[in-house]
């Protein structure tokens, strides 16, 4: 199937997989709830496995797909879509649904986290950029949701996508509604993903269930956040709507250290307040003088701080600063594939961010 108008939900082709192989269905009268693809996941037939390992296991007389990695539905690219699957987490894992997959370096991803059931990040939106997860950069109610996610029991995970919005839910609990997906692609393939083994069965792809009556949080940058940086060797780069700079958007996996610069001016001497969050290693300097050096990585789930999230108010410095032009420099290193980024807010006095040179 080629990528064109014929892969949208208005098309007549419907792929279905029953107890036999794939077969072609008929066009439905309405696109609401229309079945596009099903797979019981009791065999690997009709699935692509571009990364990781997959096998069929049997428990209590029922077969299921045991996965660690990624499987994709072949030959089906869609814009607006609903994807539903049954999930079993035998131990801590991150079972999820992939949508708008372009390649291994660029796809949308949402998953449940049984290990933090009942906590604010039990459902996580985690778009992949340049082969790296970015969940440490996508935090807060715009990208995470509290939910009950069982371990050792089957549960249903569903994602509905319409335009630049998505609704992600576990069972019939209130969904995480993402108001603005981070990737620019408007269509792509879909599939299943997990870090650490999980089991899946009864995959269903349909047209999306409407969630027009639901609303989510819109990401917003703090007042005074730096929204544009100069990246040495690249040029001008911009932050996400949340004010967080996602370096994975601009850099490849071979890049491990960057130098970021932003010039600003104070009209008069002031107590300059610098608040910031980062991942993974940072050296922050003002006019060539080191202000801060530290490491902030994932160390576990015992606290929010241990997760390594990039939050704008995690660090605060106040420095008496003369009037005139100043240079803020950040040298940032990446050491883990969970989110490489930075957010910085400047307050105090009349601060003017100067044009990028």
Describe this structure in words.
With 357 residues, the protein is an all-beta fold. The protein has two domains: 5-206, Jelly Rolls (Sandwich), CATH 2.60.120.560; 228-353, Jelly Rolls. Helices cover 0% and strands 48% of the residues. Strands 3, 4, 5, 6, 7, 8, 9, 10, 11, 12, 13, 14 and 15 form a 13-stranded antiparallel sheet that branches. Strands 16, 17, 19, 21, 22, 24 and 26 form a seven-stranded antiparallel sheet that branches. The protein is elongated and about 75 Å long. It comes from candidate division TA06 bacterium DG_24. This is 3-keto-disaccharide hydrolase domain-containing protein.
From the N-terminal CA to the C-terminal CA, the straight-line distance is 46 Å
Number of domains: 2
Mean pLDDT level: 90
| CATH class category of the largest domain | Mainly Beta
Q: Which regions contain 5 or more consecutive residues with pLDDT less than 50? A: 1-31
Task: Spell the H/E element sequence.
Answer: EEEEEEEEEEEEEEEEEEEEEEEEEE
Q: Please, what is the CATH homologous superfamily of the largest domain?
A: Exo-inulinase, domain 1
Which class best fits the helix and strand makeup?
Answer: mainly beta
The CATH topology of the largest domain is given as Jelly Rolls
Helix content: under 10%
| Percentage of residues in DSSP E strands | over 45%
CATH architecture assignment of the largest domain: Sandwich
Shape: elongated
Main sheet specs: 13 strands, antiparallel
Q: What is the CA-based Rg, rounded?
A: 22 Å
Tally of helical segments: 0
């Amino acid at each position: 199937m080629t990528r064109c108008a014929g892969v949208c939900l208005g098309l007549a082709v419907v792929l279905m997989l029953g107890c036999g192989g794939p077969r072609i269905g008929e066009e439905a009268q309405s696109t609401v709830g229309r079945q596009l693809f099903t797979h019981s996941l009791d065999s690997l037939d009709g699935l692509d496995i571009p990364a990781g390992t997959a096998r069929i296991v049997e428990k209590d007389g029922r077969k299921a797909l045991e996965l660690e990695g990624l499987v994709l539905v072949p030959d089906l690219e869609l814009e607006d879509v609903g994807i539903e699957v049954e999930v079993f987490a035998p131990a801590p894992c991150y079972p999820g649904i992939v949508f708008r997959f372009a390649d291994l370096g660029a796809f949308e991803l949402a998953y449940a986290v049984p290990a933090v059931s009942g906590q604010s990040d039990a459902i996580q939106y985690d778009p992949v950029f340049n082969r790296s997860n970015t969940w440490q950069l996508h935090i807060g109610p715009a990208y995470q949701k509290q939910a009950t996610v069982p371990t050792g029991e089957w549960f249903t995970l569903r994602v509905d996508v319409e335009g630049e919005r998505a609704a992600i839910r576990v069972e019939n609990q209130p969904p995480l509604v993402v108001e603005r997906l981070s990737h620019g692609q408007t269509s792509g393939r879909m599939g299943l993903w997990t870090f650490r083994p999980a089991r899946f069965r009864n995959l269903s792809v349909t047209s999306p269930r409407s969630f027009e009556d639901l609303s989510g949080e819109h990401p917003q940058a703090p007042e005074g956040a730096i929204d544009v940086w100069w990246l040495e060797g690249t040029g001008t780069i911009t932050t996400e709507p949340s004010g967080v700079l996602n370096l994975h958007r601009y850099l490849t996996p071979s890049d491990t250290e960057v130098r970021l610069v932003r010039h600003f001016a104070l009209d008069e001497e002031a107590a300059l307040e610098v608040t910031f969050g980062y991942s993974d290693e940072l050296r922050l300097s003002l006019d060539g003088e080191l202000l801060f050096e530290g490491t902030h990585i994932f160390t576990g789930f015992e606290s929010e701080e241990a997760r390594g999230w990039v939050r704008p108010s995690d660090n605060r410095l106040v420095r008496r600063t003369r009037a005139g032009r100043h240079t803020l420099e950040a040298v940032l290193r990446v050491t883990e594939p969970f989110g490489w980024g930075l957010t910085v807010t400047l307050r105090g006095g009349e601060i003017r961010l100067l044009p990028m040179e």
